[in-house]
Amino acid sequence: MAESLSKIAAVDPVWNRIVDEAETAIQEEPLLGGMIHSTILHHGSLERALAYRLAMKLGSGEMSEQLLREIADEAYASDDGLGAAARADITAVYERDPACHRYIQPLLFFKGFQAIQSYRVAHWLWRQGRKDLAYFLQMRISESFGLDVHPAARIGRGIMIDHAHSIVIGETAVVGDNVSMLHSVTLGGTGKETEDRHPKIGNGVLIGAGAKVLGNIRVGDCSRIAAGSVVLQDVPPCKTVAGVPARIVGEAGCSQPSLTMDHNFPSGGQA
After folding, report:
1. Is 14 left (phi over 0), alpha (psi -120 to 50) or beta?
2. Angle between helices 111-127 and 131-145 (to 10 degrees)
3. Residue 252 falls within a domain, yes or no?
4. I want to staple 246 with a disulfide (CB 3.0 to 4.6 A). Which of 134, 152, 229, 233 is the partner?
């Protein structure tokens, strides 16, 4: 796997761009030189840098940074998909978040990106049957980043979580590829069910701030959920829903709402 990572790094435009931006950032702000060197420039690949960064953020008196780094290194070495997902997530944040001007920012500063990469390691542990350790990571992710994502949840690639505070994603939730969501979103249950009880979010969905999607329901591809909505029923593809409880108020307005990040309703209240 080490040979595989070195080959990826040699032709890895995301990692090469991060390294270039790191060198520029040190020139512009020398006081961050130590942190940027230790987080990025001392590593040969994005996977290695992520393992180090996540360990530094999640380490505590209960489990050291070194142990967490070894766990993350093992996960990245065992599953190439984790690194591929991280690259898709960084690109998604850069393309969709107007506050993100460099690829280096999610890796260094954005807790939504860092939390999702930490979840991916926890999910890998869950799939390995190491559930107690996965739960431990879930706890530390919640304590460190303010997001509570169950390690059994299934989350696709190209995920952008803006601001990211108070996100809750339940155990049987599924989130597709290229989904964007803002802070205070809940993908939760509706009671004390113990089986499949959480939402299934399609590809390309945009979920506004404070929206609650509850129960084992499906949100179709490329739909929009307006901020503050409470969604209790299935949402067809390419629709906009709003309200408490949410109802269809129109079309999604474009083919890829999660990419445009457009939360506005046209005049007259129809999307």
Report:
1. alpha
2. 170
3. yes
4. 229
